[in-house]
Amino acid sequence: MGRIAFDEMCSTVTRAFVNAGMSEDKALRSARVHTESSLDAVYSHGLNRVPRFVEYLQKGWVDADAEPTLLRDMGPMEVYDGQRGPGILNALTATDRTLELAAQHGLAIVALRNTTHWMRGGAYGWRAAEQGKILIAWTNTESCMPAWGAKDTRLGNNPFVMAVPRKEGPVVLDMAMSQYSYGKLQTTRLKGEQLPYAGGFDVDGNLTTDPVAIEESRRILPTGFWKGSGLAIMLDILAAALSEGSATHQIDGIDQGSCTGCSQIFIAFDPDRLGTSEHLQQAVNGMVDYVNGSQPADPNRAVTHPGQNTVAARMDQQKNGILVDDDIWREVVSLAG
């Protein structure tokens, strides 16, 4: 493992995307989100995902030049077709449009269909909260997780984001409906480590902390067992229904890599427009202080709120450089030419 400065990583990833057919502007905007994800220690959806995204561009599974188009305008709700363009850029467009509509109406929904992998969902939560808005967003995916009680994969792990603004730093929850995402399995495997808790089943049906065994079986564990399974189903149905797009079983039929053709929902609230800003800050500060004041089960580990560890990782890596897997960095440098 080595460390790379933010600007060097961002410019290298940008060159890799330009070489794969993106315009300079789109490549830079996409690369910045990948780099920010690695800065926040979400390597699985940052630098580590770059080679796969380049592969999808080269195969034509992602259209580098596509722009989202408006399908339906219902005032505070709009529906867009992502035209299978770069998922980061589509999601940034959807987030920003949701925030604009929320500023007008107090709350807003943008539904996005026929898009591609948005990489780290938390990127859009941080973006909204840093502009003083509340965001709830999720995406469906191809099937990669068994329904509770099943052996074969029929559900997406359907990442879900909730973000709340706070003057002292936003509170941001970014999670999949699986106990660990496949990206987390990858980063744990690359480190030669075990998961801290059971994350799925091995080929014999035994719960395991071994990321290699879970990747082999493809039986990741729904978070909360049957509850995570149920939430994944409902998020999938709502994403497809509200966007008039594809559900997981239809994304499986597209069969063009991870998330190609997926459906996404962005819901925003503007506390200033709703007249609740002061109360929101009181509520979020009170809850953050209450949680942080918990008696820790492990005296060496503080109890944190969602997003707090992300900020700590960000500050460390801004100062010391972003940790990279040496093999992945060499591959990305090669793609950059």
Name the descriptors:
Hypothetical Oxidoreductase Yiak, Chain: A, domain 1, globular, 13 helices, 3-stranded antiparallel sheet, 7-stranded mixed sheet, 337 residues, alpha+beta
Describe this structure in words.
With 337 residues, the protein is α+β, with helices and mostly antiparallel strands. The chain has 2 domains: 89 residues, Hypothetical Oxidoreductase Yiak, Chain: A, domain 1 (Orthogonal Bundle), CATH 1.10.1530.10; 184 residues, 2-Layer Sandwich (Ribosomal Protein S8, Chain: A, domain 1), CATH 3.30.1370.60. Helices cover 45% and strands 18% of the residues. It contains 13 helices and 14 strands. The strands form 4 sheets. It has a 7-stranded mixed sheet with strand order 2-3-4-13-5-8-9, sandwiched between helices. Strands 11-10-12 form a 3-stranded antiparallel sheet, covered by helices on one side. It has a two-stranded antiparallel ribbon with strand order 1-14. Strand 6 and strand 7 form a beta hairpin. Helix 1 crosses helix 2 and helix 6 crosses helix 7. 46% of the residues are buried.
Strand sequence of the main sheet, in spatial order?
Answer: 2-3-4-13-5-8-9
Distance between the termini: 22 Å
Strand content: 15-25%
Shape: globular
